[in-house]
Amino acid sequence: MTLGQLQDRPVNPRPLTSTVIDVMDAAGPQVWYDMTIEVALSVITAARAEHLIICDDDARCVGLITQARLTAVRDSSGYTDRLRLGDITDDGGPFISSSATREEAEDAMPFGRLGLVPVVDEHGSALGVLALSR
What we know:
Low-confidence stretches: 1-7
Number of strands: 7
Oligomer: single chain
Radius of gyration: 21 Å
């Protein structure tokens, strides 16, 4: 029996860069922007979720809201039972493209931004959420 000679081969000469798809969490419950705050609180409680993805009539993501924010709005002095999610959502983002790397996503965020950011496809549909840590 003879011993074979082993050759060192690089596994991958370039470091792999993952996209946000590789590190995002599930989107969670998605609701319409015309839903009332009380109904949204019921949905988030029943789903045992920490956030809701808010969508417009075309199922495009228009924002994300946490249970803490919903509760704060409901407990505020300006609250009425006519208040809807669209009234308290900051339309237009921030959102992260599904093709972005995690580093690009963190660099694109306003300085000091923490928390969950929706990951959207090229049509604006929510695919998941990314937890930013800086």
